[in-house]
Amino acid sequence: MKQFTQLADVPNPSALIDKAQYFKANPLAANDFAKGKTAVLLFFNPSLRTRLSTEKAALQLGFSVMTMNAAQGWKLEFEDQIVMNSDKAEHIREAAQVISQYADVIGIRTFPSLTDKDKDYSDYILQRFVEFSSVPIVSLESAIRHPLQSLADCLTIKEHQTKSKPKVVLTWAPHPKALPQAVANSFAEWMSIMDVDLTITHPEGYELAPTFQQHFPVEYHQQKAFEGADFIYAKNWSSFQNYGKILEVKNNWTITAEKMALTNQAKFMHCLPVRRNVVVADEVLDSPQSLVIEQANNRTFAAQAVLHELLNH
Ligand code: CP
């Protein structure tokens, strides 16, 4: 594996999920693996889970870790053939090459603008780092994907499924802010390699980009989608069609115990952070059906598997 930015980068996704599961059982099995090597993590946007779990994963493999909050103070120019007389003091062409002198692997977190669909969906900032870095790049969530989250989610489903081909429902949920589509996109992308029956439910106007929607069925009636589900994966996302906008929604899409009662005692999943009693009711989040802390825990082992795979040659 040369980089980890999307599912297509992974030659054998099932083996990578198995590797994450192995590291969960044996977190220090390769604690000398990356001795003398350095992981540099650049965060252009805030993070709790991704930052701490990726740092922990790297430390458990023996990496030294340098994390930079790149959002504040460091204004990077990504455009070519530009006269750099604005407030952006450094160009991606030098910056990526310079960081590559100090790093054996570089992690990047960058969110979308939610205003320029074409640029966001070209995954512009992440791809500029891929273009100019000379070491492997790991997406710590990009404009359109969150593959480390999805890998952890695959592991969580694998651990908790009680039958083959469980029914998994990806459900839109309300949120006061316009959020990226990255988690939902990535979840759908990775479900394509899992032996699951995925249904996507959301209000009209919240269809995912066709690349991520793929062949998966859409059910616009949330309660109907929940019937017989084994896993409910909740997430808000802003509109792709009416790009980055929050649309008017008539019905209540918050996940409640009443709706969960329609399922096959489904497990509840969410990538976190989550807005209580907006996205999901306390009664669901605090119930034994909730896997959200397990998902967060699995982030470490997903990252450990990816870092190990990238440098294992
Ligand atoms: N789920 C997730 O990526 O959380 P953070 O934004 O805290 O990293």
Explained architecture:
The chain is of the alpha/beta class. It has 2 domains: 7-145 and 299-310, Rossmann fold; 149-296, Aspartate/ornithine carbamoyltransferase (Rossmann fold, 3-Layer(aba) Sandwich). Helix content is 35%, strand content 14%. Strands 9-8-7-10-11 form a 5-stranded parallel beta sheet. Strands 2-1-5-6 form a 4-stranded parallel beta sheet, with helices on both faces. Strand 8, helix 8 and strand 9 (218-219) form a beta-alpha-beta unit. Helix 6 (147-160) packs across helix 7. Phosphoric acid mono(formamide)ester is lined by residues 47-50, 141, 149, 271-273.
Q: What hetero molecules are bound to the protein chains?
A: phosphoric acid mono(formamide)ester
What order do the helices and strands follow?
A: HEHEEEHEHHEHEHEHEHEHEHH
What name goes with the CATH superfamily of the largest domain?
Answer: Aspartate/ornithine carbamoyltransferase
Query: Widest sheet: strand order?
Result: 9-8-7-10-11
> Overall pLDDT, averaged?
97
| Total helical segments | 12
* The number of domains: 2
Distance between the termini: 9 Å
> What structural category arises from helix and sheet content?
alpha/beta
CATH architecture tag of the largest domain = 3-Layer(aba) Sandwich
How many strand segments? 11
CATH class of the largest domain: Alpha Beta
- The global form is globular
Give the radius of gyration: 19 Å
Proportion of strand residues: 5-15%
Percent in helix: 25-40%
